[in-house]
Design goal:
The chain is mainly α. The protein has eight helices and no strands.
Amino acid sequence: TRERRSGDGTLTIKGDITTAEVEIAALDAGLARRRAITEARRALARYAWAREASAGIRDLEGIVGQLVGIVRIRLAVGSASQSDLLRLEVLRTDLETRRRNLGDEAARARATLAGILDLPSGAALGRPRGARVPGHIPDLETLVQGAIARRHELRRIRLELQKLDLVIALQKTRGLPDLATGMSDLQDPLAADGRRAFPQRPMAPTDVFLGGREAWLDELHERRLGLDQQRRALESRVRAEVESTVHALRIHRRTWWAHSGEMLEKTRQRVELERSGYQQGRRSFQDVMDAEEEYIRHRLEGIDALRDARLAWADLRDAAVLVDSTGGPSVTPDHPGG
């Protein structure tokens, strides 16, 4: 064939183009897998939050129930007001509503996980594991450079650029004379001594052929330029996405630590002091209620901050393409106050 007479350069380029296309298809499959994993991680974070928050709110409902009992006793003897009871009833209703909503949130997350994992409808899920918050976040620039190197979208564009370069090289090769004398459509098949080395063939209209080839090459170069601009723009977006998720994770993690650690402990101590002072007649029941409500508020804000931190961690793992113990950067979990 003509390609074989031209040497194996053309065939090699075509083989490289095919290889690039196969790698692009593999990247598309990897991107779909990564997105499914991220969706599962977010659903797992919501499922873990709903279960833990529901248990925490039941504890708070127990505290409010005790206060309601105390107020009713005081109301019977005339040492409390109806306003105090209504205040606690509103708080108890709010907690009950939250707990019921959390039940639906857990069901939604469970349904999402079942869909991703192809589990049967109504499949029971055990206690969630792995919905953690990192205690150490790698250096921001390390995360950004890793994301630029590993993100499927960027790797796909780089392969598309590589493929275009191969197509351009292939088009240039097709326009060059063949290696064998007299075998080119653009070369007069005369030997050095003036005799024809091979039978005469009709000459192609070289001006039209070359003009079309040059126009096609110009279009390929323009296409490559546009694709390279897309690559640079995507790199900027990836950098911004990683930076944004890192800062979001730091904010929510810090909030969780604050409301679940030092501040929660101080409000708990205040509750004990106010209760002790009330029993000794030095503090009013209003002071006790204020301390209890502050403690409940910190508990609830800590629960919500933990959810947000877990979701931000799932987003960062997706943005920077972080993986677990099977490979990639390792990030250790921590606890409030760590």
